[in-house]
Amino acid sequence: MCDGRWWIDYLCINQADLVERAEQVRLMQQVYDRAHEVIVWLGDQSSDSDRAFNFIKLHDKIIQEANSDEQIRRSFDLQTDKYTAH
């Protein structure tokens, strides 16, 4: 899986808001056309559904922390280069 954005219809679309849901459904072709990778989960909720969503949330948290760590490292490297270049 890529380290980019995740689009999960069930979580990203307010299922109770019929107007929002209709608007988002119209945009789905664009979302999927622009996706690097698409994973589809069809069917009813099962006993393992919560585990899958917990995994997705954990994966997102890890990616965000890794990106933050990388930004901090890059910032430190830039500062180090700035002061050692003279």
Automatic annotation (TrEMBL):
* InterPro entries (alphabetical): HET (IPR010730), HetReg/Transcr_Mod (IPR052895)
Return the protein name.
Answer: Heterokaryon incompatibility domain-containing protein
PANTHER family referenced in this protein's UniProt entry, alphabetically = ANKYRIN REPEAT DOMAIN-CONTAINING PROTEIN 39 HOMOLOG-RELATED, HETEROKARYON INCOMPATIBILITY DOMAIN-CONTAINING PROTEIN
Q: Which domain of life is it from?
A: Eukaryota
In this protein, which residues make up the domain named Heterokaryon incompatibility?
7-70
Q: Which organism is it from?
A: Alternaria tenuissima
